[in-house]
UniProtKB/TrEMBL annotation:
GO (cellular component) term, any one: cytoplasm
InterPro entries: CitD, Mal_deCO2ase/Cit_lyase_ACP
Name of one Pfam family that matches: ACP
Record's keyword terms, sorted: Cytoplasm, Lyase, Phosphoprotein
Subcellular location per the Swiss-Prot or TrEMBL entry: Cytoplasm
Modified residues (O-(phosphoribosyl dephospho-coenzyme A)serine): 14
Primary residence: cytoplasm
GO molecular function: lyase activity
Protein name per its UniProtKB record: Citrate lyase acyl carrier protein
Entry keyword Isomerase: no
Length: 94
């Protein structure tokens, strides 16, 4: 599936994450992770893996996923990615 619109889910509060999904005209799944340096060093690869897994699970291609992390746990990241993708997909059906 492809998305053709931008959508968001989450918040920039402590222990949360703001996920923005947008079409990727260059193709493929691109992840842009913004977090504190220490979190990136320790958990950056894990966060990217969680995002990639959820995107693949939902069957979405050609998407940019911007992740602005404020210390969210994996299940929160998964939920926010899913919600943002569902919002982007739903807006195309209207």
């Amino acid at each position: 599936m492809k998305i053709s619109t931008t959508a968001k889910a989450g918040a920039l509060e402590s222990n949360d994450v703001l996920v923005t999904v947008m079409p990727n005209d260059q193709g493929g799944v691109q992840i842009q992770l913004e977090t504190k340096r220490v979190i990136f060093k320790q958990f950056g690869k894990q966060i990217e893996e969680v995002v990639r897994d959820k995107v693949a699970e939902m069957g979405v291609d050609n998407v940019i996923v911007k992740v602005q992390d404020k210390g969210a746990l994996d299940y929160t990241i998964r939920a926010r990615v899913q919600t943002a993708l569902e919002r982007a997909l739903a807006s195309e059906m209207c």
